[in-house]
Amino acid sequence: MANPFLQTLYRYLFHPDVGLWLGRFLSGRSRKAHHPLDYTDLGEREYLYQFVRAAVQKGTAADWYLFAHRHLPMVRQIENVHYIVIGEWIARYTFWEIDGDRWALQRYGGPHSVEVLFSAHFSHAVVGV
Question: pTM of the entire structure?
Fold first, then answer.
């Protein structure tokens, strides 16, 4: 789907309705294939963990990393480097909030219900949830 030649060829051969159907079909297949892992904490096998760990080992890591587009909310620390995965809004309703020096990873539960999953200050956060 990312090849420019195939995109051009497709544009000339197919009606847009076919394109919508094909996109939904391929997206659905991908979603079904990855769904079991979307909500599984893979620990040190997490690709985001490996990314941050590699930066720490190279000595090029930032103090904080904030990631999205991973369905499972996480707060982790590798040495003195913190990383947060916000999670997703569609099924888990997780979000990240900053209030001055304080931050919180939270889950929306309705108009009058917000569950704090993790909260800390930027200046002295010790994490491991």
Answer: 0.64
